[in-house]
Amino acid sequence: AKIVEIITNSVEANVVSRNAAEGESEYNINDSINFSLTSELIQKESIAKVNLDKNQLQIESGNNHLVESRFSINFTNKSTFNLKNVEVTDGPFDARLYIKKLSVSGDITDKIQKIIGVKSDGSEVAISFTVTADKKIVDLMIDQATFEAVNELYRKVSSGEITAGQATKVEPQFTSLKIVMDPTYQVKPNEGIVANITMGINDPYNI
Known about the structure:
Largest sheet: 5 strands, antiparallel
Structural class: mainly beta
Strand order of the largest sheet: 3-4-11-6-9
């Protein structure tokens, strides 16, 4: 829980001239500051989630399998000390969407140890990734199985194998995503990463 009590720290000093002239007075000065203590090691400003589509999802009848929704998660160590064992987790996601791709940038992207897809039952799947020379992860496919199933659904409808009304929702493989930093690395103040996440529609004919 937060500690919300306001604490006042005051200081006062009497200033006396070493060789005071006749009639010269002593001076009294004082000042105080108010502050509060918190038990929160990480300030809420350290994490920011931003929708990159102006909170709008523009669907396209017949082509909803191509529609994407994008947002970013910005993590920056806003504290005054180093952090260890950092994990950035997002989810559960909107049930109408699946996590399609992930791109990461930032000065400590090369310190990412694991990227994990988390299933609805809590089980975890590690996803292989490569960090480029300029410390980026670019368009890493996350839920490959759902992506392929949605495209297969589109193929069947387009070929007349099934009707749009017969097309059913594809259950996403993952309901949340976890980015795990190397536990031996200490994230310094103002260091961080930006994760750009692209979501796809998993029920393109019934959204």
